[in-house]
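During the second half of the funding period, the structural biology subgroup turned its attention to how the target accommodates small molecules. The most pressing case was pyridoxal-5'-phosphate, which had performed well in the primary screen but for which no bound structure existed. We therefore specified the complex as follows and requested a full 3D prediction, including the ligand pose.
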Amino acid sequence: MYDVAEVRKDFPILGREVYGKPLVYLDNAATVQKPRQVVEAMSEEYYNVNANVHRGVHFLSQQATELHEAARETVRRFLNARSTAEIVFTRGTTESINLVAACFGEAFMREGDEVIVSEMEHHANIVSWQLLQARKGIRLRVIPVDDRGQLRMDEYERLFNERTRIVSVTHVSNVLGTVNPVRRIVDVAHAHGVPVLIDGAQSTPHFAVDVQSLGCDFFAFSGHKVYGPTGIGVLYGKEEWLDRLPPYMGGGEMIGHVSFEHTTFADLPLKFEAGTPDYVASTGLARALDYVSGLGMDAIQAHERDLTRYALDRLREIPGMRILGEADDHDAVVSFLVGNIHHLDMGTLLDRLGIAVRTGHHCAEPLMRRFGVEGTVRASFALYNTRAEIDALADGIVRVSRMF
Ligand code: PLP
């Protein structure tokens, strides 16, 4: 039995009020709140262990290094990667995608070569490739989205040609909640001999991910969206790919030997980790992954899917409601507009009722254009949300609508 009341006790912030109203936090796709266990693990490390990793012979440095490398093993287990050599710590999904675009682009793409992305990508998975476009003259090909917010898989297959070098798509849309058929996407790409990068920013918090069964070549996610701290994320890459990529940044930790004539690089994964890593954040991330694994990713998914269905049902009852994203496989994100009410007005007035939602383009302007809107209101759910909070949202929307 999933006991959401018990779970909420781990998140002190959920007990606070805003404008004298109980906080209803529904901006989880942007970032989630942190359980006590994560914050405490990080405080404990700062108070009792802190020392720079990988360099020192002294006790604390070795203990900090052990924690940092144990965290890498926790991430490996969470993703079911083959080896910790395949787990690179970055600052987040954005940096992980930029790393692949820069390094893969450097090694394997030339003018006229193509990357396939989709119309529902976050800007992180568009602009990173556009930077490469500006540098090397590569081209972006775009998988269109249908009216229900699903990828047009027939069009996807037609985008491949002899210049296609990589596919880079999101696992779950941060706007529509659509869960993309990643295994099929990978199979089609591999049939053309093309590797695939999956943006897992919006999947890792909500359901179990197994990179080996997905078959993807790269996978990116952010710590702060999966109950860990800000400033840390992960790039998973198959060893055979990471081995063939040049380093991303130069500096300490990522080298073998350095001379002015010739420098060699460290083995994986340190080749991609120049400079002092955020070794306290890695501990926090590991604690967060242990936390969600302890609750059970399947139990979290069942709870959140129930909330999503309930929210869709409640919101559909509201006059003038337009929901963007009606995919069959719909995760814990609901985007909407009501009548002619501007998304910003709706968000601002809901905030006054204590309800935190996100408004705007959600870093997905091409998708907004696809649906002919400038922005939406987005409610997104986490493992600690309740049906009562969805009721508060629905009642709040009705109240705001009556004011217009
Ligand atoms: N990709 C998707 C689908 C996202 O939802 C986000 C964040 O909202 C990102 C990438 C970027 O994540 P970060 O800002 O943590 O790097």
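Two results from this model are relevant to the next phase. The CA atoms of residues 76 and 164 lie 29 Å apart. The chain has 14 helices and 17 strands.
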